[in-house]
Amino acid sequence: MNSLDFAIRQMIDEDLAIVAEIEAGVFTDWYRMYRKPQDALAERTIKELRYSTSLDPGANLVAIAADGAMIGFVLARTWGEVGWFGTFGVATQFHGLGIGRALIEGVTTHLRKNCRIIGLETMPESGNNIGLYTKTGYAVTFPTLILELSLIQQADHLSGMGAGDIILWGGSDEAAKPGMLDGMRAISNAIVSGLDYTREIEAVHEHRLGETFVAMDGGSVAGFAIVRTVPYRGQDTTGRGYIHILCVHPEADTDAVLLNLLQQIWSRCTSTGLTLLVTGIGGRYQSALGLLMQHGFRGVRAAVRMVDRSSATEAFELSADMNLSRWAG
Ligand SMILES: CC(C)(COP(=O)(O)OP(=O)(O)OC[C@H]1O[C@@H](n2cnc3c(N)ncnc32)[C@H](O)[C@@H]1OP(=O)(O)O)[C@@H](O)C(=O)NCCC(=O)NCCS
After folding, report:
1. Quick one: which of 270, 258, 151, 248 has its CA closest to 191?
2. What is the CA(109)–ligand 1 centre distance, in A?
3. Residue 95 C-alpha to ligand 1 middle, in angstroms?
4. Residue closest by Cα to atom 14 of ligand 1
5. Over the stretch 130-154, which tens digit does the pLDDT of each residue have?
6. 113, 139, 169, 267 - which has most CB atoms within 10 Å?
């Protein structure tokens, strides 16, 4: 086969079960080819897909063959004026027919309407993906470092915070919530102009996938962390949680605020049975990375981070701020 008729359209809720099936299939094939033999990946849950597509519904696309079968998909989201796409796949038997390129062009065109910075992450083993993204307008920038924090090994360092000192955005007074969101928006906007994590905070809460911890300094928000406690895929019994986002105000005492957030997270997560936290940080925030290591995080692997070449140039520059997040769904 060297050509195929297909069309790209926006993803709808009825597509999600097939998206879950194709995604698990293509990534099982990928892992078997590039990493090591393993059982088939469990599918992402529909709840997970519904949440990840809710942040910018128009950015999520599917490729449909002339016979009506779905053959590819791309998920994407925007955080204010920062957007990224992933997870992304084309059914293995249809690779090399231009479907992936069409999906990338569709999502990039959509994200360019509102975003100053557009990015993605991919696997370092996949030269083909890096080639494809390079041809579609993306450039390699600082890698993302993926880190783990063992809650068991860090018990001496992080335990001891009383339940009354844990501040959860979702558990706060309704009257206080909008002001806290404003404070969190101000932090992300101070780190990257236009970056806004507040819809993410609300979506994780609405879909009951985790919690947002808040560090206060007097009456102001000094930092926050969104922690995902519910697995992405159906059958994850590894006791892992994810620090999905963690930010500290550039003018705050970074080390003190970070320690406060980690102590809050430790107390809450160990009480619900989690033993390990996974997170990631873009390499442009590498001075923050040193601080994370001092608090017990260990590097486990890296991902290639790529940025649309029309993005604001700061995406290619070092930053002294603390901004943990991955551009990978
Ligand atoms: C990545 C993926 C979605 C691409 O989909 P696809 O439909 O096979 O891709 P396309 O046929 O549109 O694109 C192939 C293009 O990449 C280019 N390409 C492939 N390998 C390349 C390489 N090593 N160097 C340079 N370019 C390369 C091809 O030349 C072609 O470019 P062209 O459009 O100019 O001819 C698909 O391979 C896939 O599902 N992989 C497994 C899951 C995955 O890796 N997802 C992405 C995670 S970040």
Report:
1. 248
2. 18
3. 7
4. 96
5. 999 999 999 999 999 999 999 999 9
6. 169
Instruction: Give the separation between CA 243 and CA 144, rounded to whole angstroms.
Output: 14
Angstrom distance (rounded) from CA 283 to CA 290: 11
Ligand 1 pocket, residues with Cβ under 6 angstroms: 26-27, 30, 86, 88-90, 95-101, 122, 126-129, 131-132, 135
Nearest CA to ligand 1 atom 16: 132
Q: What is the pLDDT of residues 192-211, one digit of tens each?
A: 999 999 999 999 999 999 99
Q: Does residue 1 register a pLDDT over 70?
A: no
Quote the CA–CA distance of 41 and 216 in Å, as a whole number. Answer: 40
Distance from CA of residue 118 to its chain's centroid?
13
8 A C-beta contact, residue 295 and residue 329: no
CA of 132 from ligand 1 middle (Å) equals: 5
Ligand 1 atom nearest 102 alpha carbon: 12
Cα 311 to chain centroid distance, Å, stands at 19
Round the CA-based radius of gyration of the chain to a whole number and report it: 20
Determine the Cα–Cα distance for residues 213 and 159; give it in Å rounded to an integer. Answer: 16
pLDDT in tens, 264-310: 999 999 999 999 999 999 999 999 999 999 999 999 999 999 999 99
Interval between CA 300 and ligand 1 midpoint (Å): 26
Tell which atom from ligand 1 comes closest to the C-alpha of 126: 44
Which atom of ligand 1 is nearest to 121's Cα? 48
Residue 16 vs residues 29, 134, 203: alpha-carbon distances, Å: 20, 29, 17
Distance 96 CA to ligand 1 centre (A): 6
Name the residue at shortest CA distance from atom 40 of ligand 1: 89
Find the 13 Cα to ligand 1 centroid distance in Å: 26
User: Tokens 């993803």, residue?
Assistant: 11
d(CA 160, CA 106): 49
- List 138's β-bridge partners, or say none: 308
> Bridge partners of 150?
276
